[in-house]
Amino acid sequence: MEDRTILEMKDLHKNFGSLMAVNGVNLSVGQGKRHAIIGPNGAGKTTLFNLLSGRFKPTRGQIFFRGEDITGMSPYLISRLGIARSFQIINVFPQLSVFENIHTVLMSKHHIRYHFLKSLKKWKNVTEETVPLLEQIGLLDKKRRLGGFLSYGEQRALEVGLTIASDPELILLDEPTAGMSMDETRQAIKLIDRVTKGKTLVIIEHDMEVIFSLADIITVMQYGEVVTTGAPEEIRKDQRVKEAYLGDN
């Protein structure tokens, strides 16, 4: 049976003046798949994520999510449809506790505003929902610590928690292990594997251990274009990929 497509890009372009950052990308992501996008610096990977999440509007081309045209939609509306995205730079609330970081996102997910009389029951339900999510990302014992005082790896784990707290159908992770030690990276692989089960994941990464540990399918980009897409073993053997990115050795 054919995979059902959840995300589709058609002839996607993004120009910044004379610079063509994304150049005619045609790409489909299957529902429930873990799809990695790799390529050298400047290949257009993060620009592509910015288009998918609504931070940038494409110069031309279309983006479809579950068959709906989301081209040029605002990040807020795209998030509401079920797409969540993390960033290369850590993006947590440093002055809030770990618990408050997750709780705040869950409040937004349930459209709850701070009103004592009307929101008390909903508030309790959200609080009960926060605890298992903290367990899932391995930070329950750090729930009272301020986000800004966590270790680098813990902040990355918290950011993953913030990304999945809205219960998205599609998760976009932009270099989630950037700057991590080898041990932190391996813990991050386990975390991402655990929290994305049953979800569709698109991940940008430079660390090949992460890519080959998680990905079902890999797309290679260079100069804003798709070089090739295939299963991990196909990508390992592709001569163009070796020359462009993996190193021909």
Helix content class: 25-40%
Q: Tell me the major beta sheet.
A: 6 strands, mixed
Q: How far apart are the termini?
A: 37 Å
Shape: globular
Write a structural description:
It is a single chain. The two termini are 37 Å apart. Strands 6-7-8-3-9-10 form a six-stranded mixed sheet, sandwiched between helices. It has a four-stranded antiparallel sheet with strand order 2-1-4-5, with helices on one face. It is built from nine helices and ten strands. A hairpin with a 2-residue loop joins strand 9 (217-222) and strand 10 (225-230). Helix 3 crosses helix 4 (116-136) and helix 5 (152-164) runs parallel beside helix 6. It has helices at 45-52, 75-81, 98-109, 116-136, 152-164, 182-195, 208-214, 232-237, 239-246, and strands at residues 5-16, 19-30, 34-38, 60-65, 68-69, 83-85, 170-174, 200-204, 217-222, 225-230. By secondary structure, the chain is α/β, with parallel strands linked by helices. The model has no long low-confidence stretch (mean pLDDT 88).
